[in-house]
Sequence to fold (559 residues):
Amino acid sequence: MDQETLLTIQGYGKFFVILFVFIVFYSYAYSIYKRQRTGERDFEKYSNLVHDDSFDSTPLEKRDNSIDKND
Amino acid sequence: MQSNAQLEYDYSIVKAFTFTTILFGIIGMLVGVILAFQLAFPELSNLAGEYGTFGRLRPLHTNGVAFGFTLSGIFATWYYVGQRVLKMSLNESKFLMTVAKLHFALYFITILLAVVTLILGITTSKEYAELEWPLDLLVVVWWVLWGVAMFGMIGMRRERTIYVSIWYFMSSFLAVAMLYLFNNMEVPTALVSGYGSVMHSVSMYAGTNDALVQWWYGHNAVAFVFTTPIIGMIYYFLPKESGQNVFSYKLSVLAFWGLMFVYLWAGGHHLIYSTVPDWMQTMGSVMSVVLILPSWGSAINMLLTMKGEWQQLQTSPLIKFMILASTFYMLSTIEGPIQAIKSVNAIAHFTDWIPGHVHDGVLGWVGFMTMAALFHMAPRIFKREIYSKSLMETQFWIQTVAIVLYFTSMWIAGITQGMMWRAYDEYGSLLYSFIDTVTVLQPYYTIRAVGGLLYLVGFFMFAYNIYKTATSGRVLDKEPVNASPMAS
Fold:
């Protein structure tokens, strides 16, 4: 294979690798935002884990063995 | 489960690691400054015989700041943030407390031994993996202990959801475990052949394979020591100190998985135009460019966290440190991908632009964020007000000027160097010899050394401020909620 063909393949390779990563990345982003919008899960409330972190404060979502088993 | 009333978070391990962060920070940065002056004034290389040569001191600098200063900072913040967001105390488990103490003790011994062995010239000669096999074994032991403490704490948590900072710390633990094991696969020669020093070993890989594994490790040491745990820190300390919610928690999750997916493939960019397969170089280059997305995702998320509260940047030096850290993270994560583009790499590779890039990352991002984290923790772990706000302000400006001097001089030096190495005349002969480039670069090396010295001066101010906070700061009657109290 000559150098030029090699470079062409490399060029296409580069494009498709970027495209693939792009699609995976944005599909994941979309799924997160969709879950938030439909109310399936509120991601933003987890910011409070930082503010409400003293030892005696009530957990945001108390850990419960039955919940853990469902995970 | 025990009653929570008499329990509180235990910061003894946090304090121990805070101490080593400062100790190894001073050692590592001091050696760095000596090296910078040696490059500007080579006669300084002869001051301490073989022990003062560049070859001996350079690994001491890199290991000192990466595995001494930074790792200590990571461990200190882990034991602090981990307990708090998981809502569990080390006091609740004698086992975990013992593991954490052992983690600290073995870590401290290893890094001290690292200092001694590197000064004596005992090294594998693999960059950032210089420690010889007995020390590697020790590293594995305390890394596993950290893992036991980490997953033990997670297992005991009261909070069901694991906050995103913890994810970053977990990724650091898992990735470094894998990287360190594979890159340090080595054969102790004396045990196999019966000849030579007991300390000596050779890599299990040869030639190109060794290079590939080395840079898969080397670049990801940057990823999982200098990046992910530091992001973990900023996701806790910036919202906490500013009292703001993370701008978008969803973005933090997205950026996390993006970083995990992309980072491990980018190491090939260290081997562009070398004897590794071309597709691997291309992949390293492409993945480095894609890496901009998750990196900037986190950095922008942090900057936007301050939305509507930018006046805090004027009033709080701690917020200044963190915002500048985030800004330097943005700078170095756009600079890295640019350097990884093949045509740019043809100029940048092996030049001073590379240490320039590394240092706007480590001084601006890792250094500032680690010091900010320690400043935030100080009033909570010592139960005292920060000793001096004005000292902190002065430190901030001295170190900011220091970083600017460092990276601008190295940008100019690096690009000049790269262009001079490539320059040829109409007959195809090279225009310059190596020493021509050295002569031209000497002033920039001096500027870099001055920059490094200023940063070290700032670090001494930081150490003094923390020491005075711990010993003579005003005693606080209750834990501050957000902004850290500081005496003017």
In short: The radius of gyration of chain A is 23 Å.
